[in-house]
Amino acid sequence: MKIWTSEHVFDHPWETVTTAAMQKYPNPMNPSVVGVDVLDRHVDTSGKLHSHRLLSTEWGIPSIVKSISFTNLVSVDERLVYKPHPREPDKTILTQEAIISVKGVSLSSYLEGLMANTISSNANKGREALEWVINRLNAEIEEFTASARGTMRNSMAAAAFVEK
């Protein structure tokens, strides 16, 4: 068994990052993720949201593992925790952990290391994807705001025209 961990600070408030996390797929940084199924989602007694999701991917396991048909002996349990930064409210801390297990083969430690490297690389792409989603959401908000302002101006201009 190998445990991989990582921590990252986003320069966005918790609400923004968690909204983006729920809309992360599809994205251009992770084109191999073809679907997301929510297996379980609940709020515990302390108010924490737990979401157990299964990503359908075209990759996920290094090609060496696929090529020797060990997919039924491989287990990856990944946990992501998003928390507001304790001192900076406009930032969010992401803590990631993956527990990798390869069973029943003499190369298990080597294969677990390969998988940890793949997870690390994909975690970087995942953080880039969240930034991409946040930028897309911000652009949509700006577009909506501009459209609403234009509608309000047109309505006010029409009302002023009618009054004259």
| Assembly state (oligomeric) | single chain
Beta-strand percent range: 25-35%
Average residue pLDDT? 84
Give me the Rg, rounded. Answer: 22 Å
Total helical elements: 3
Order of adjacent strands in the largest pleated sheet: 1-5-4
Helix content: 40-55%
Order of helices and strands: EHEEHEEH
Structural class: alpha+beta
- The 3D shape can be described as elongated
Low-confidence stretches: none
Report the sheet with the most strands, covering strand number, pairing sense and barrel closure.
3 strands, antiparallel
Distance between the ends: 79 Å
Q: What is the number of beta strands?
A: 5
How would you characterize the overall build of this protein?
- The chain has 164 residues and is an alpha+beta fold.
- The protein has helices at residues 14-22, 63-67, 108-163; strands at residues 2-10, 33-43, 49-57, 74-84, 92-102.
- The strands form two sheets. The protein has a three-stranded antiparallel β-sheet with strand order 1-5-4. It has a two-stranded antiparallel ribbon with strand order 2-3.
- Helix 1 packs across helix 3.
- The radius of gyration is 22 Å and the shape is elongated.
- The protein starts with a strand and ends with a helix.
